[in-house]
């Protein structure tokens, strides 16, 4: 069993409009845009990152906004809900705020004794805000007060037709089964970061999802550094998993592998961080390009949709 993985690092999804995506995460949810860059494999598409002040591991939601992309089809084999923590007692304030912005499919429920505010993002992506004691410092620069501001991730909810093999994988990755409620089983990394929960929702009669705007592309798990990442990679390979080589993503190093239920997993390093090419006070302001795409800057500046205005 691995001990290097500490919980979530980031979650990456697809969107259909960069401007609408940016407005939702910064204006409605109050997160900070900590990086404005492009997709390594499709540089004419943004890669936008939102999180706390510095983009700490376990706080960052990222997006590839493919302009006018068709909406994904919800189903199994995907992350169905991405959840953030909010302070206890702030659910009502969030319900009111989301209603003010005419956010879609707002609701409230309780899972494993925790109060959740549920809602959809601009492309039908499903989110939850979960009341929990969380000592992480929130970003309040976008006008949301500290007593209700999002702290970071709580969990990711995997929707699977059969959760058995994925549960075994999570166990190998250092997660422990915590509890079961209905068709949802909760797993947690003891001693991990604050984003150390994965829920598996088993839905044997539900068809496989179709990826598109609003779909989670992958979820990334955090390791301290490259040495710990190589240990994880070697252990996964030794167990028979097909794992990519280490890939430099400028702000972290990444490896990827596909899970039995179809969800794409990444293991990402906490180093070097989002301040490697921007001062903390100005994170997410300038367009930062991977070195191999710097020669495209003038063309991309003309092509990419302005995020504000």
- The helix count comes to 5
Count of individual domains: 1
Structural class: alpha+beta
Distance between the termini: 50 Å
Task: Give the C-level CATH assignment.
Answer: Alpha Beta
Please give a structural write-up.
It is globular and about 50 Å long. With 309 residues, it is an alpha+beta fold. It has a single domain (8-303), classed as 2,3-Dihydroxybiphenyl 1,2-Dioxygenase, domain 1 (Roll), CATH 3.10.180.10. The longest helix has 13 residues, at 226-238. The mean pLDDT is 97. The strands form two sheets. An eight-stranded mixed beta sheet has the order 2-3-4-1-13-16-15-14. Strands 6-7-8-5-9-12-11-10 form an eight-stranded mixed beta sheet, with helices on one face. Helix content is 16%, strand content 34%. The termini are far apart. A hairpin with a 3-residue loop joins strand 14 (247-248) and strand 15 (252-258). This is Putative ring-cleaving dioxygenase MhqO. Keywords: Dioxygenase, Oxidoreductase. Its EC number is 1.13.11.-. InterPro entries: cNMP-bd_dom, Extradiol_RC_dioxygenase, Glyas_Bleomycin-R_OHBP_Dase, Glyas_Fos-R_dOase_dom, VOC_core. Residues 7-132, 152-270 form the VOC domain.
Summarize the structure.
This is Putative ring-cleaving dioxygenase MhqO. Helix content is 16%, strand content 34%.
Task: Present the secondary structure layout.
Layout lengths: L7 E8 L2 H11 L3 E7 L7 E6 L8 E6 L12 E9 L4 H10 L6 E5 L2 E7 L5 E6 L20 E9 L3 H9 L3 E6 L2 E5 L8 E6 L13 E8 L2 H13 L8 E2 L3 E7 L5 E9 L24 H7 L6
Parallel strand pairs: 1-4, 5-8, 9-12, 13-16
Antiparallel strand pairs: 1-13, 2-3, 3-4, 5-9, 6-7, 7-8, 10-11, 11-12, 14-15, 15-16
